[in-house]
Structure formats: C-alpha cells, structure tokens
Amino acid sequence: TNPLSTVGRISPLSSSDLDRITKLEQVHVMTRHGTRTSHRSLSEYFANDTQFYECDIATITTRVNTETLTYSAPMLQQYEDDNQWLVHSNCQLQQSWPTLLQQHQQNAQIISDAYLASDAKHHLFNAHSNNNNHNHNNLTSYIQSYTSNYERCMLSSITLLSHLLNISASNATHITPLLSTITNDVSFNPYAPWSNAMCAQQPQFTLWRNYTTIDMFDAFIIPRRHQLMREYAQTLREYEQHGGRVIDAPYEYHEHPSFRLANFYCNGMDIPLPNHTFFSLIEMGEKYASIQPHASDDDDELAMEYAPKWQCTNFFYSIPMYLRFKTEIEALIQRNANAKKLVIHSAHDSSIVAFLSGMAMYHGSFPYFAQFLTLEIYGTGSNDRFLFRFTHRGEFVPFPLGNCSVEYAVLDTQLCDLNELWTHVFGRVHNATQRTWANESCATLLDDCVCGYCARSSEESGRVQSVVQPYSFFIGMCVGVLLCGMTYVVVSYIRRWLNANSTAFEYQATVDDESENDIEMNDRQTVVNDIGH
Question: What are the residues whose beta carbons fall under 8 Å from the beta carbon of 16, sequence distance 6 or more?
C-alpha cells in the first residue's frame, strides 16, 4: 500500500501564512511511479524458493482497462509488441503491479483534498463543483502532465489524473484525452537524464558519469556500506543460514537483499525468514540505500568534501527536470493565458533523489513507490512577488539555499520569496531546448571541469584524460609517463595498482575506439545504468 495514505493529507499552511497570500496559483507534483515487478526473481536470493510473479494485468491494455479504471491509451501499445517476460512468470520485466492503481488513487485523493477541494485562496480550484462531462474539458485545460517514458510511469500518470477528474468508462469518450498532455520521448527522457540516449553519444558525458559515480562510491558510499554490514553482521549471518544469497553489485542501490526483499514482500511474496531477521534486514536496507554525504555533517570531513560534489552532479542531471518546472512557472509569472494550475511529473525514485539533491534538500531516506513531493506557488497581490513552499511526504521541507532560512526564522513561516528559488536553482537553468543541453552541455563536461572533474585533450589523438582530486599527483605521473612515450604495459600496471588500492582511477578512451571503455566498465559496473527505475 501507499505509506502516505496513513498520513492522509498534505500539511496545511498556518493561519499566519494564509494571511500572507492572496491565492494558491500553481502546484507541481513530482511522484514516483507505483509499485512494479522486480527485474529479478526471488529464487535468485533463495535458490530453493519457487514463488514467482503472477500478473492478472498481463498487457498494457488490460492494465489500463480494468473494472475501476477504463481509459484508452493507444500510445502505450508499443510495449505489447516486444514483451520481455520475467522467468517463470506471466509478467513483463519491471511492469506495473496491480497495487499501483490503488496507490495513485490514494495519492489523487490526498492531492484533491489539499488543492482542489474549494475556491478558497489556499486551493487551486474546486474540482468537485465542476465534476461533470461539460466542465471536464475546462478542468483539463488547467492541468499539464509529464511522464517518464516507462510504462509504470505512464500508467501512474493516467491513474492519478483519471481519479483526480473522476474519469470512468462512462464519460471517457466525452472529454479531452488526457494523453494529449503526456509526453513520451524515448530518445530523451528528462526524468532519467543519466541514461539519455543523446548524451550517451557524447564521449565526455560517459566518462564524466563514470568518474563521478566511481569517485562517490569508492571514496564515500562503499566504505560506509562496509561499516553498515559490520553493524548488521548477525542479521546477514541469519539470512545466509536460512539459504539467503547476497548479490554483489557495488555500484547499485537495488540489488542488495536488504533492499530488494522489501520489493518482493510488498508484492505479496512470502519471505522465508524469521520475522526478527526479516525486519532487521529491511531496517538495514533503508540505511543501505540512504547513504550520501550531507553538508550538515560538519564533524565528518569526508562528508563535507563530497557533499558539494553530490549536489553539483545531481544539479547537472536535474537540469532537464528543472527546465520543465521553470517553463511552467514562467508562464504563470508572465500571466500567460495558457499557464497551468496543476502540473504532474510522473517519474522515478532516482528522479526525486536527483531533483532534491541538486537543491541540497534530500536527506537520504530513499523514495518508496508512489511517494511524491510538491512545489506550491502563491500569489501575494503583487504581480512581481510570489511565495513558494516545498512539501515531501506530506510535510513541509525548508529550502536551504539563499536567505530562506532567515525568512523562515524571522517570520515563523513556511513560505519564502520565489526569487530565492529562482536565483539559486531555476535561474541557473538556461532556456535552451533539452536537446541543446544534451548535444552541447553533455559534450563538454570534462573540458568545462563540471563539479571538479576535468580533462586534458591530446592534439594528436583527441584522447580524454580524467584528473580527479585528491589523487592528481599519481594521475599526473601517469600523464607524464604517457607523454614521454612509456609503453602500454606500464600504464596498465599503474591502473591495476590504483584499482587494487581502491583510492583512484585513471582512464583513457579514444573517441573512435570504445574497447578500453568496455574493459573499464566491465570491472566497474556503475549505478547509473538503471538507477531508480
């Protein structure tokens, strides 16, 4: 089920904050898709277990056309052409699970109660009084829906919107199709920019992505995982004594049993463990998936060093998402007649992590299925002054950049001037197309030393070399050796020495020859291949 359903509401504004506003003007909702099947089977963790996924929604059509939710989705039919079935299952790989419908129907109710329940100044509009076929088209003109191009995200968006607008089989043919407002771009997915097909064509993007991932994991995340596993050594021993298997994927969040078993459990499978072992393992999994550097950990020098890198890399990944938010907010500020009131972003856990981390707002607790955050924008009666508030899991989340902390403290408020958000986030995002970002910004990441990861170009071969602190001395030696014409054997020896000590990495790739890249990434599988999906 949806954990937010136990809360049942989004935290309302205080009476003093209500006095500061004239009208709620726009709300953005970024939600993780609902629950899905895993790309693994339970037998990979317990060899003798014979439980498998059984889906009573075997195709996209039947997933959309149910007794409680019937809506035509012809653009989704492409997913039926080439099913990737799970082993010993009638389910597609990572397809949506029936519980998804319930989760997003619950979300829709929470969102409706918070923002669409009346014409009062703290609501967007009264969807209930307009809840008839004649006015559905007017309501849909207020709403914009974006989605990642994954089936589970598209179905989440359809379910959420259908329930918000009370669309059923009886009236679906009489309203403006919701799918006209849903974007589906296979080659460019703003909500999964690390796997952007256009960026992946840029050699520097692939190298930069690998450098930032390996540096963060090797220096910060993996050592803390090892410490966590020592703390839960007894739990892991009990897990293995009951036939459990640990899958080793050092650059992944999702493969460790402490994380993956929660997915199986929530999808109705019986986990062959005693209760105390299972719940201890799940407790470990929450901590395992939530390791990240926090700038607030001022007694942790390594955290202080890596927190800016974490924020910087996630800001870059989030630029396409930030641009979507910025475009919709600009339409509001400029009083565009087509400005939307409610904007839905159906995305992934990794989308939420990156979005919040790029603003130093993510505090480590990994997003569960159907979890959502909101950005509320309020008018003040002045055309050039707006206030904003973030909520996450239904609760207010302070914006930590700029002068908002002063405003929160002095005025005892949850609202801050929108100019602060603009100055520190959206104003830093250029109004270029997302494809321009992919073709230009992704092409020069190392040349531009984005987040401190730099490159030097060799005129004769166009090779790109990484210089990553604090090991520039050693890598500089390697560069010097290369420039002096030392043999490949010496370079390979140095690379093996660095890898063996897990302290640095040095890597070269020729634009026209990807063989070295393949060798390097076979040794170091990165988390970015399917993060969060």
Answer: 411, 412, 413
